[in-house]
């Protein structure tokens, strides 16, 4: 309606102009020029009026111009993409939030979003030193302020010296700021107890997701039975299945062992690989360690078996290690795939192609919005490496604020620096609270009839298995939805708790789960878990499953 009114008004204006003396060179200069046909102004009005007439005629005939981009012409790979973490449940949660804000009433006063690992949105406070350095980089005039410590100023000055025009507003080289890449290499060497790291194998990324997508783009090729197969764990983080769908690759599922705390079984890898070879060409294996959504921390022996498998079957290894700081169980330890590969000897270390990923979004930092991240890529063919650099150059560079944040993460205050004490206290406080919440979540959920939760050894999620009575399964199917989607929607509508159905991550047939983050404050987490407990018992009673 607004557009029709606008067109009508413009037509009236054009008609009025048509009756006025045009503003020509004659009126401006007093010099009359020989007529060369309609004036530019008149010609423009004629074109405009002709176009308006055509639009009006088309509308009068009851026809509308067809859109070029429709669901029929949309890229089919885009239609195949699904991302449960921000899927229908979350959209519904947003609608309920808005309804409550507008004065609507529900059996609850707020929506608690436990669907995504967004630490700061859940109330976690930023690490002071990280924000100080990024603030100084963003607004260098703060260098004169006594409110900022010298160790933060020194780091900011060093980062800015590596930026064009000494400004965070400039582009960097496509792989990232050189001094930051060197700091990351030094961090990796220290983390891996002396395993060498070449800074030229380090690439800054827009979060870890950007790096993962980039490497997959290099790997995906072929048609029909030669299409690239991508081996991913089930349950998995939906980025992987979404990327595989978008790139029209073949998803090759290998199932984690839920009965063994989501451990990776080497026999399952071989089973999945052999089955996939019948219809595609497996070229890459992805591992998430610590696990998302499952929260397990893989043992060194398990990692050795995976790397030996990749060596034997000539697979590219992608190791998603964004939760490397999030290990809570005392008898668990994070082992980087690169370090384990090095310890397996030169035959492995000099041949297995490996890309490892890290991010500013997780760990103790939780700086999701900066979109900071990096990947280290080793043993890549030099010609392919040049293609990687070319691909990275298309996106110009990652955000420099995110690069600066990543630098602070790999180059934190040292024990002899002014900011060390506060930094160490804040970091320990965040990780200590997460460890407490991981234990609390496991204990409360396992006390509920019909829920079984493996220990949350690391990362920041629980992935409990839930029993859904047959009658509820039937009702869900009648509504055309997965049983755990039905369960999670009911949970949201009755309690305001937003979690993600396990079907969005993948699970064995006949099992049902949901993923929830352990990020809310301890007080809010207790409320959340209490509501889940009460809802589940009520749900079982409703469907006559609780004796």
CATH superfamily of the largest domain: Type I PLP-dependent aspartate aminotransferase-like (Major domain)
What is the typical, i.e. mean, pLDDT?
88
Based on secondary structure, the structural category is alpha/beta
N-to-C terminal Cα separation, in Å?
A: 60 Å
Write down the Rg: 29 Å
The main pleated sheet reads as: 7 strands, mixed
The portion of residues assigned to helices is: 40-55%
Number of domains: 2
* Named CATH architecture of the largest domain: 3-Layer(aba) Sandwich
Task: Output the CATH class name of the largest domain.
Answer: Alpha Beta
Q: Specify the oligomeric state.
A: single chain
Keywords: Aminotransferase, Pyridoxal phosphate, Transferase
Pathway: Amino-acid degradation; L-alanine degradation via transaminase pathway; pyruvate from L-alanine: step 1/1
Domain Aminotransferase class I/classII large: 166-530
Protein name: alanine transaminase
Give a description of the structure:
Belongs to the class-I pyridoxal-phosphate-dependent aminotransferase family. Alanine aminotransferase subfamily. Residues 166-530 form the Aminotransferase class I/classII large domain. This is alanine transaminase. One of its GO terms (molecular function) is pyridoxal phosphate binding. Its EC number is 2.6.1.2. It contains 20 helices and 14 strands. With 547 residues, it is an alpha/beta fold. The protein folds into two domains: 80-122 and 423-544, Aspartate Aminotransferase, domain 1; 128-410, Type I PLP-dependent aspartate aminotransferase-like (Major domain) (Aspartate Aminotransferase, domain 2), CATH 3.40.640.10. A seven-stranded mixed beta sheet has the order 2-8-7-6-5-3-4, with helices on both faces. Strand 3 (228-234), helix 10 (238-246) and strand 4 (250-255) form a beta-alpha-beta unit. Helix 8 (178-191) runs parallel beside helix 16 and helix 17 packs parallel to helix 20. The model is unreliable at 1-35 (pLDDT under 50).
